[in-house]
Design goal:
homodimer; 277 residues; alpha/beta; TIM Barrel; eight-stranded parallel beta barrel; 8 strands
Chain lengths: 277, 277
C-alpha cells in the first residue's frame, strides 16, 4: 500500500509547538504567509489571550483551527487529583469551543510507580467524565497513544490497540483515536489497528515527524519527515486506505529546530511534506 | 499474583556489563567474594582470553556461567551482511560451548530505514540458520525482545508476543524467550505472553533492573531495582507462575553506576535484589 504523493499544501497543518519560539500572534502571521491550511493550537499558546479572538484571527488568515492540544493526564494518586484532572479537561472543552476547534487531543497520563492497569482504568473513567460535556459542545476527543518510552509519566496508553479498546469500552461516537507516527511506527499491529479504527469511524487525526538515529533526547529530538527511519508515506497510505482524508499535522519537538530560524524551518517542513510524507 | 520475597542469593546472577569497569578476571574474583551464584558473560569480556579457562575459573570460584550475551543482529541491507551475521552467531555458539554457557541471548537487530517486516523475516531466517549448530552443541538460543525505542537500530523484535510468534514459526525445542523487565514492563500483554512462553517451555531467562524517571539517556541510564517505576516483584511472580525458577539476572547499563566504586555497587545490587526484586 503506497500513498499517492502529496502535490500541494491543502492538507498541511502545523502544531504551534513545532515553532515553539513564536507566540500565537506571530505564528498566525507566519503560518498564513507560508500558506499553511490548518493549525493545531497548544493550550499554552492561549495563556492570557482572548481565545475567541485567537480563533477568529486564525480563520481570518485563511486557516482552519483543527485541534486543541492537549487534554488528558487523567491518572492521579488520589481522588482530588483525579477530580482536578477532569476539571481541567472540562476547561479544555470550554477553550476548544471558544477557539472553534472541533477536536481535543488527549495525552492520557501516567503516575510513576502506579500500576499501569490502574492508570488505564483511571484514564477510561476520566474520559467518561468529560464525554457528555464534549458531546454537548460538538467537540470530539481523540486518544493519542504515546510511545512506550513515555509509559512512566506521560501515558499508560501505549498502543493503538489499547486506544481502540478504550473506545470500544466507552462506546461514544465522538471519541476516537489520534495516530502519531513517532509513537506507533514500530508496532506490528499498526496497520490492522488503523483498519479497525477506520471501520469504527474513529480515525480523528494524523501526526507526522520522524525518528532520528541516534535519538539523543527522549522528548525533544524528533526529526523532520525523511530524516529518520519511519516510513511516513506507508503509514499515511494505511490511514487513507482506512478512510482518513483529513489534515496531516506536523508536530516536531526539537531543540535543534527551535534554535533555528523558524521561517526557514517552515520552508523545510513544506519541502519534507511534499517529499517524504 | 505476588512473588514470594527473595531471602537469599541462590538465584542471583550478574551480567559482566553491569560492572563494566572490571575485566573478566577482576569480575570473577569480586563476584565470588560477594557471593554471586551466576554470571552472564558478555562477549567483549572474552576478547584475547582463553575462553575455556574463563569458564573453568568462574566455576572454580563457585559460580555458574548462565549465558553468553549476545548473538543476534541478523538483519543487514545485503546478503553478504546477513551471511556475516550468521557466521558471527555460529562463532558465538563456539564461544558458548568453550565457556560452558548453556544459553545465548539474541539481540535480534534492525537496520535503520529498512522495513521492520523485512528485518523481522531476516531475523527468523538468521536464527533458522544457526539452530542446527546450536542444537548439536546443546546450547539454547533466547530471543530477547527489546524496547520499542530500540526498533531503529537494535531490534525489530519489540514485544514478547513477536518473540513467541518467531518461536512458533521455527518450532525448535531449544529456541525460547528472554524476558527483560526494562524492555517489556509497559506491555499490556506481558503477563499473558509470559504464560504462553511458559506453556511452551520457552521461558529461558529473566533480566532485571528499573526504569528511572526521568530517564536521561536512551541506553545507559538504567536504574537499580526499586529506583524506578517497574514492579519487578510482580513480573517475577508472573514468571514463576509460568514455571520459571532460574537465575534472576541483574543487567544494568548506567554511566552513573559505572562511575562508582564497583564493589560498593555490587552490595547495592544485593540489597536491591532482596528488597525490590
Amino acid at each position: 500500500m503506497c500513498a499517492r504523493q502529496l502535490t500541494d499544501f491543502s492538507r498541511l497543518c502545523v502544531h504551534t509547538i513545532t515553532t515553539k519560539p513564536w507566540s500565537i500572534e506571530e505564528a498566525t502571521d507566519r503560518y498564513a504567509a507560508a500558506g499553511m491550511k490548518g493549525v493545531t493550537v497548544w493550550r499554552q499558546w492561549l495563556d492570557g489571550r482572548d481565545i475567541v479572538k485567537v480563533g477568529l484571527n486564525l480563520r481570518a488568515a485563511g486557516m482552519e483551527v483543527f485541534s486543541l492540544c492537549r487534554g488528558g493526564f487523567f491518572p492521579a494518586a488520589d481522588a482530588a487529583g483525579r477530580r482536578a484532572a477532569v476539571d481541567d479537561n472540562l476547561k479544555a472543552v470550554d477553550e476548544a469551543e471558544a477557539l472553534g476547534a472541533p477536536l481535543i487531543v488527549l495525552v492520557c497520563g501516567a503516575v510513576p510507580g502506579q500500576p499501569l492497569e490502574e492508570s488505564r482504568n483511571q484514564i477510561a473513567d476520566g474520559i467518561a467524565a468529560v464525554l457528555d460535556r464534549a458531546e454537548q459542545a460538538g467537540i470530539k476527543l481523540g486518544i493519542e497513544p504515546l510511545h512506550p518510552m513515555y509509559a512512566d509519566t506521560r501515558s499508560a496508553v501505549n498502543t493503538i490497540r489499547q486506544a481502540n479498546d478504550i473506545c470500544d469500552r466507552l462506546g461514544a461516537p465522538h471519541l476516537g483515536v489520534v495516530v502519531d507516527v513517532y509513537h506507533l511506527w514500530w508496532d506490528p499491529a499498526l496497520n490492522s489497528e488503523i483498519e479497525r479504527s477506520g471501520r469504527t469511524r474513529r480515525l480523528l487525526a494524523f501526526h507526522v515527524c520522524d525518528w532520528r538515529t541516534p535519538t539523543e533526547d527522549l522528548l525533544n529530538d524528533r526529526g523532520l519527515m525523511g530524516e529518520g527511519c519511519i516510513n511516513v508515506p506507508q503509514i499515511r497510505g494505511w490511514m487513507e486506505a482506512a478512510g482518513f482524508d483529513g489534515f496531516i499535522e506536523v508536530e516536531i519537538f526539537s531543540h535543534r529546530y527551535w534554535a533555528k530560524d523558524q521561517t526557514m524551518f517552515l520552508e523545510n517542513i513544506k519541502e519534507a511534506y511534499l517529499k517524504h510524507t
